[in-house]
Amino acid sequence: MGVEAWGVRRRARHLRVIQVGIGGRPPAGMAGIVISAGLCGGLLPEHTPGTVVIPTQVIDEQGVTHSCDPGIVAALERAARYLRLPVVGGSLISTAGMVTGSARQTWAGRGHVAVDMESAGAAESALRFAVLRVILDTPSRELSPAWAEPGRAIRNPSNWGEAIWLGVNVPRYALRVGAVLEAAFLGNIDPEV
To answer: Within a domain: residue 149?
Structure first.
């Protein structure tokens, strides 16, 4: 999303950002390191919005597993801990649509800690990749499934309370993604990224 790209551009200005949109994929065959960065959904009730997710693997809905580059994962984890942010690792599931309600429990029961819609595509686009996500919604802070179509959701007054919450927290968490990237690479990021 545009706000996710904004957060990275604002805090980690030295990075090249390719905005793919919700469920999008970067161009195939990208050289260097690709980091899928943005927001995600939490699957476990003990995680709270704002928790940084740095998975060791990404799995798509068909079960194809992509291992994240251990060196990049370690650098991202060190940065998040340096910033004193809550961090979780493990497995991230990348789905074709928004995951809410009982679907969260289903994916959590299969061993995943978070869900997004883009990371499997990023994994397929490069030889070296990692994922950095910040949890936006959780089982205890569920978003309406209507937000799968934000333009339509905002027109419904029943979603306005969530719209205010999103308006405050989406930019805040997008900046958190950028801050972790900046801390991880201190402006001296590998020129391949």
So the answer is: yes
Please give the model's pTM, rounded to 2 decimal places. 0.88
Distance from C-alpha of 95 to C-alpha of 88, rounded to nearest angstrom: 19
Residue 11 pairs in a beta bridge with none
Average pLDDT by stretches of 10, the chain with 193 residues: 82 74 62 86 96 97 94 94 95 91 93 93 84 95 85 90 93 95 70 41
HSE-up of residue 58 (Cα within 13 Å, Cβ side): 30
CATH assignment of the domain containing 176 = 3.40.50.1580
Write out the H or E segment, with its range, that includes residue 136: strand 128-137
Q: Which residue has the tokens 């499934």?
A: 145
Integer CA distances (angstroms), 181 to 9, 27, 37, 82, 193, in order? 10, 21, 9, 12, 11
Number of domains, the chain: 1
